Amino acid sequence: MGESMISNYQTPLSSRYGSKEMCENFSDGKKFSTWRQLWIYLAKAEKTLGLNITDEQIAEMEANKDKIDFQAAAKEEMLTRHDVMAHVHVFAAQCPKAAPIIHLGATSCYVGDNTDLIQIRDGLNILLPKLARCIDRLSKFAEKYKSLPTLGFTHMQPAQLTTVGKRATLWISDLLSDLVNIQRVRDDLRFRGVKGTTGTQASFLAIFEGDHEKVKELDKLAEDGGLILLRQKSVEKFTASICTDLRLLAHMKEIEEPFEKTQIGSSAMAYKRNPMRSERCCALAKLPMGNIIDALITASTQWMERTLDDSANRLDFLYLLKF
């Protein structure tokens, strides 16, 4: 473990629970290379619509897309107090021929918001096959134990017989609803568009000398850059519900989590079989559920056209996709 990881705060969401692919998807490398890709899309669209942008300039940008000097960007941000312009300056220094046309006419939201939502889309694409695999394995479990009787509970009091397989089908039903909802969210994502400040496109109208049709066409041509719009999903609610059932069943040893030979159940009582995996799922599920309230508060206090008092907590929301 490097010195920087030891001496700097690391969130458990990434260091303990985040998969390698999710961590890479929400990494700074992915984020800022996507910013640069969006600037390339913008330049190509503007060139197609007649602006004086050359193939050489675009080729220079493409050649340097992934060569990001993060230290230089950090120094620039200390001077400018502006994250997007810091990266514009660093990219421009690497691409002297393309420098005049990088981020031409755009506002920060063009790269900031679109990149956030491209990462969300890619995160959902990572999540969906994992959810489908979970449903498949539960389905096989339900089929195997469809006739095995077990005592059912209502109000957590002994009720009447059900079967192990029947109980599992209730979990599957909830997860299938999630699968459909997440697929719909992903498929309905829309590109935020190429806008100027306050979303008026006035800067692009000036660049294209009052040609409204070219400004409209710019949005369509830049659509290659991504898909935008997000709705809150409920997978965390059902995950918590399922894992709560498992924790209750573990109390009477009706079901148990895997227990490795080298595993220690408790520092004081090594023999204990605590349902640690289910407990972790329940703990993690509370974070995005709480974030729904935070999102509503943020949406209700956006002040006229917009404000940036969501700049910290929206990053926290993106992080929650990692688990």
Automatic annotation (TrEMBL):
<dbReference type="GO" id="GO:0005829">
    <property type="term" value="C:cytosol"/>
</dbReference>
<protein>
    <submittedName>
        <fullName>Adenylosuccinate lyase like protein</fullName>
    </submittedName>
</protein>
<dbReference type="InterPro" id="IPR008948">
    <property type="entry name" value="L-Aspartase-like"/>
</dbReference>
<dbReference type="InterPro" id="IPR000362">
    <property type="entry name" value="Fumarate_lyase_fam"/>
</dbReference>
<dbReference type="InterPro" id="IPR022761">
    <property type="entry name" value="Fumarate_lyase_N"/>
</dbReference>
<dbReference type="GO" id="GO:0004018">
    <property type="term" value="F:N6-(1,2-dicarboxyethyl)AMP AMP-lyase (fumarate-forming) activity"/>
</dbReference>
<dbReference type="GO" id="GO:0070626">
    <property type="term" value="F:(S)-2-(5-amino-1-(5-phospho-D-ribosyl)imidazole-4-carboxamido) succinate lyase (fumarate-forming) activity"/>
</dbReference>
<dbReference type="GO" id="GO:0044208">
    <property type="term" value="P:'de novo' AMP biosynthetic process"/>
</dbReference>
<feature type="domain" description="Fumarate lyase N-terminal">
    <location>
        <begin position="82"/>
        <end position="280"/>
    </location>
</feature>
<dbReference type="InterPro" id="IPR020557">
    <property type="entry name" value="Fumarate_lyase_CS"/>
</dbReference>
<dbReference type="Pfam" id="PF00206">
    <property type="entry name" value="Lyase_1"/>
</dbReference>
<keyword id="KW-0456">Lyase</keyword>
